[in-house]
Amino acid sequence: MISAEQIQNDASERSSGILSGDWELDFYSRPILEPDGKKRWELLIISSPCEGTTASFRFEKRCPAGNVNSTWLASALTEAIAAAQLQGWSVPRKLRSWRSSMRTMVCGLSG
What we know:
Elements lengths: L3 H12 L7 E11 L5 E9 L10 E6 L6 H17 L8 E2 L3 H9 L3
Parallel strand pairs: 1-4
Antiparallel strand pairs: 1-2, 2-3
């Protein structure tokens, strides 16, 4: 259920020109080998649709196979947030992921 405060905050963000939306993210290996013979890992972030606009935020970043961990992910998310803010987006309210291993890594960021 959406609270009156959240509706007011959303309306305030839209009127102030700040875009907001939840993020859907995936951190996965692709069936592509890098020059060193290891799988290519990528982080992909896409914002959910933003009411009243067709704008969306998209962020992609490659991760060296030896750095696949929550520390690298935390650093990349910080970079994504900075990039989003430069494009007029607020910090996402929610992060969504569909892979259970992804949820484990994201939950590990708060601890």
